[in-house]
Design goal:
single chain, 236 residues, Rossmann fold, 5-stranded parallel beta sheet, 10 helices, 5 strands, 48% helix, disordered C terminus
Length: 236
């Protein structure tokens, strides 16, 4: 599915990663924060390996997940391996993949002392770069602490898409899936969304369902289905 309207942010992310900086992505629910990072990850997969981590889980669960993702050929007794030894292995064991690793900390909504300690430890080791995807209800104090430990970093705030980008998306959707929308209909759809990415997604899914095409996209019969494969999130 066509990814539109984030050219500036994509450029900022790539530049920051090239310079070795970390990134903090802000924006309210439905703005496409995770989808933006997924798009950059796919576009730069030959250069960097992005590992997405659900940061709403406990540090122990996060460590177990990272051990599996980062060291697939290693055998660990995860049932008995404690948190700090797990963390130490993540920071020191030889990585199987030679690409630079980017840890994407998704769903950052609350920073407990243990989670801040986890971030401090890994950033201090300077083995990985980080992209932090922050929920809008993270406290200002939590965001301040995150920025301290993500330094050097840039902050990218996602806002509503501009009208031309929304029109471009609906034009592509209409042509690709033969919806036969007129320019007037497309402009009306763009006005209805108000540039809010989640509304674009909802309209796209609704029309694909109405035309009986959604399952085709999910099944991967269209090469450009992108993040729609397997679920309905991440159109953009």
């Amino acid at each position: 599915m066509l990814f539109v309207g984030r050219e500036k942010e994509i450029g900022q992310m790539k530049e920051a990663l090239e310079q070795g900086d970390n990134i903090i992505v802000l924006g309210k629910y439905g703005m496409g924060r995770t989808s933006l990072v997924q798009h950059v990850a796919k576009a730069t997969e030959e250069q960097w390996r992005f590992v997405f981590v659900d940061f709403s889980k406990t540090p122990g669960s996060i460590c177990n997940y990272l051990l599996t993702e980062l060291f697939p050929t290693q055998e660990f007794d995860r049932e008995h391996l404690k948190y700090k030894p797990s963390r130490f292995r993540i920071a020191t064991l030889a990585l199987d993949d030679s690409r630079k690793h980017i840890l994407v900390l998704d769903n950052i909504s609350k920073l407990s002392a243990s989670k801040l300690d986890f971030i401090r430890y890994l950033t201090w080791k300077k083995r990985f770069q980080f992209i932090s995807i922050v929920e809008s209800f993270l406290t200002s104090n939590g965001l301040f602490r995150l920025r301290v430990w993500m330094n050097p970093s840039i902050v990218i705030t996602l806002r509503h898409l501009n009208t031309s980008s929304v029109i471009q998306f609906f034009q592509h959707l209409s042509k690709e899936y033969q919806f036969r929308w007129t320019e007037v209909q497309i402009k009306n759809l763009a006005e209805v969304t108000g540039g809010y990415p989640l509304r674009l997604q909802e309209i796209a899914v609704r029309e694909l369902e109405r035309k009986g095409r959604l399952q085709e996209v999910i099944d991967g019969r269209y090469d450009d289905a992108g993040a729609l494969k397997g679920h309905r999130e991440g159109l953009f």
